[in-house]
Every structure is written in structure tokens, then in C-alpha cells.
Design goal:
mainly beta; 4-stranded mixed sheet; 1 helix; 5% helix
Length: 106
Amino acid sequence: MNNETEITIRRGKSYADRLRDYKVEVDGVVVATVRAGQSATVPVTAGRHTLTIRIDWCSSEKLQFDAKSGEHTDFECGSSLTGARILLAIVYIFRPHQWLWLRRAA
């Protein structure tokens, strides 16, 4: 029986960070990068994992998920600095784990 599954991380387009790649970390290990408006698909073993998106010293909050054998799970990510929030960039420097957002796709 195959104990692997795949996850896909889709990144939206936004002004902030649009020229920079986000690093995708599964269980603390960089497994892929994702550019603005693109996605990355990576294999993971079945079981509980931690997913994080990172850019420099800033990141999303850690998201725990259970990967089930043979299933495909989708996630979305992006910058928290959209719209008028881009004017608050200095505030997010002091909240490095909120610079990016990450969630399971609906």
C-alpha cells in the first residue's frame, strides 16, 4: 500500500512580495518555492505534518494538517499586506509570523 500523498500550495497575486518566492516548509524542511500567481505540488507521507510559508525572517503561522494516504490536499497562501494594510508594513515587522497567511483551501 502506498503511504504517500500530495499537497498543493497556491499563491495568490498581490503587490507585496510579488517579485519574491515564498519557501514552502513541511516539518521544518524547505520542500518547494512558489511564485506569485503560481502553485507548487509536493509529495508527503501520510500522517500529521506542519506546514509553513516563509520569506526571509517572516512567515505564516504554522499550520498542522493530517495527510491521508492517497488523498490530495490543497492550501492557499499570500501576503497579509494587501490593500490599505500595506501602509502598516512597519507593524508586521514586529509580527513576523503574521506577515504571510496560510489556510486550507475550501
